[in-house]
Structures are given as structure tokens and as C-alpha cells.
Write a structure and sequence with these properties.
Number of domains: 2
Number of strands: 11
Protein name: Endonuclease/exonuclease/phosphatase domain-containing protein
Structural class: alpha+beta
CATH superfamily of the largest domain: Endonuclease/exonuclease/phosphatase
CATH topology of the largest domain: Deoxyribonuclease I, Chain A
Shape: elongated
Helix content: 25-40%
Strand order of the largest sheet: 3-4-5-9-6
Oligomer: single chain
Pfam family, one: Exo_endo_phos_2
Strand content: 15-25%
CATH class of the largest domain: Alpha Beta
GO molecular function: catalytic activity
Organism: Penicillium nordicum
Domain Endonuclease/exonuclease/phosphatase: 89-204
Distance between the termini: 45 Å
Radius of gyration: 25 Å
CATH architecture of the largest domain: 4-Layer Sandwich
Number of helices: 9
């Protein structure tokens, strides 16, 4: 196995920013995860975003505000990973309590012959297959079983593991599935108690022996290190000596702007 396995942490944060998300996203083991999959995140009432203190290390993927993608993104989002095994699709899913209509949407997304798939989520469904012999049986869970059969998905957590404890009522509704090619690479699927905050759900950690391709580093200019005096002189020397004519057409405006951009780019 790799010295640094690919790590995924999934957690239902109960739409709580200050009590759950702030604590959860400050924990050292969470910061080490390659993917942090959150169900029921706190939603900013003024902007299309959520609580995101990890801007330096993690990219936030949040559902768009409007349209069909927004409707689907509220309960299922996909991330595609480039690995040495090939492309891996990871789905983060949330199915509202008391409903079953959202379970079919991952099936629609899986219909494109994806070979390497992981699905993490709070499904709010009970079944003996993952809840153990004492679990109740929701009729909607049968659709999830069908989905697993159709996509050839293996259940990764141990059946019967408690993922939610609400006022002493212990259930298994937070699940993680993967296709056989990834099951062969699975090292750990466990409760991540060292990442637990004050939610009634428990986080799940997955460790995989896969190598992702490094991201292409985007080169950034060191603006703070720029010699501003030298820059000002260069720009002044390359600007027209006479006042520019009045810009009256879109073409004239574009030409003037492009000329300024060219001067700046040549100097920096």
C-alpha cells in the first residue's frame, strides 16, 4: 500500500455551522483527508455557499443556485478523479428522511458505463443488508439494493455499524459503496471517531490504495515582489505621448484595452 493512502471522510453536519462544521473542519484528521464529503451542510442565506475555512488546502464544490443542476446537486454531486487505475467517480449523496425519490438519481448518473465508482451518503434508509439483523426494513431500501446490483456495488462498512445515535435510537443510515475494482484497493472503512463533532451522525473514514495524478500547478505571479517604480517607468515609456482620441466605437475601446494589457504583460 502507498505510504499516504487516499483518504475520504464523510459526515452529516446537521446544517450546523457554529456547533458542528466549525469544530469538524478544524480537526487535524479531517484536514488530512483528500475528500471531505459533507451531507446537510450549513447553507449561507445570502450567498450560494457554505462554511469553508479550508480555502488554502481544499476546493469547495457546492451546488449551483438555480436550474436542474441545482436540484440534482442538492442531493447528489459527482467528483471524477484521475488515477493510475483510470478514472474514478465519487458520488456524495443525501436522501431526505421519509422519502425514496432521491435514491433513483444516482442510478441515472451511473448509467454511463462508469467502471470505478464510489458512493458515500446519508440515505435515511434501513435494511438488514447494512443495518444488521436487528434493523427495520424500509420499502425504499429495496430501490437502493437494486441500484447496488445494477452498478455492481459492494457495501464497505461492516453491517450493523452504528452511524447515527439520536436520543439513544441507534441506526445505520450513513453508507459507503464501491465497485469491485476499488474494493480490492480498500484498506480501511471505519467510524472516524477522532473526527466527530456535535452531530447526531458519526463520520466514516475510507482509506484507499490508489494514486491520483497530481494537479497541474497554476503558476502565479508574485505581485508583491514587483518593482513598482520600474513598472511605472516601463508603462509610461510605452504609452502614447499624445492624449488618446475619443473612443466612440466598441472596436476602438477593444483596441485601447488590448494595448494596455499588452504593455502590462510585456513588463510582468
Amino acid at each position: 500500500m502507498n505510504n499516504t493512502p487516499f483518504t475520504i471522510i464523510q459526515y452529516n453536519t446537521h446544517r450546523s455551522r457554529d456547533v458542528v462544521m466549525a469544530d469538524f473542519l478544524a480537526k487535524p484528521q479531517v484536514l488530512k483527508a483528500d475528500i471531505i464529503a459533507v451531507q446537510e451542510p450549513w447553507e449561507n442565506p445570502y450567498n450560494d455557499t457554505t462554511y469553508h475555512p479550508l480555502k488554502q488546502t481544499h476546493e469547495l464544490l457546492f451546488r449551483p443556485a438555480q436550474g436542474q443542476a441545482a436540484e440534482q446537486g442538492e442531493f447528489c454531486q459527482e467528483v471524477r478523479l484521475r488515477t493510475k487505475l483510470g478514472e474514478v467517480s465519487f458520488f456524495n449523496t443525501y436522501n431526505e428522511c421519509g422519502t425514496t425519490d432521491k435514491v433513483g438519481h444516482p442510478s441515472e448518473l451511473l448509467s454511463n458505463n462508469r467502471r470505478r465508482i464510489m458512493i458515500a451518503g446519508d440515505f435515511n434508509l434501513h435494511h438488514l443488508a447494512w443495518g444488521g439483523t436487528e434493523a427495520t426494513h424500509d420499502t425504499g431500501a429495496d430501490r437502493l439494493i437494486e441500484l447496488c446490483d445494477e452498478a455492481d456495488l459492494d457495501l464497505w462498512p461492516e453491517p450493523g455499524i452504528i452511524t447515527r445515535d439520536q436520543n439513544g435510537e441507534q441506526t445505520t443510515i450513513d453508507l459507503f459503496f464501491g465497485t469491485p475494482a476499488l474494493t480490492e484497493r480498500l484498506a480501511v472503512c471505519e467510524l472516524a471517531l477522532d473526527c466527530h463533532a456535535d452531530s447526531d451522525h458519526l463520520p466514516i473514514r475510507v482509506l484507499l490504495d490508489i494514486d491520483t495524478e497530481p494537479a497541474i500547478e497554476v503558476k502565479r505571479r508574485l505581485w508583491k515582489a514587483m518593482d513598482t517604480e520600474k513598472f511605472d517607468i516601463f508603462v509610461a515609456d510605452n504609452l502614447p505621448r499624445l492624449p488618446p482620441p475619443q473612443l466612440t466605437t466598441p472596436q476602438q475601446i477593444d483596441e485601447a484595452v488590448n494595448h494596455l494589457i499588452d504593455i502590462v504583460q510585456r513588463e510582468v
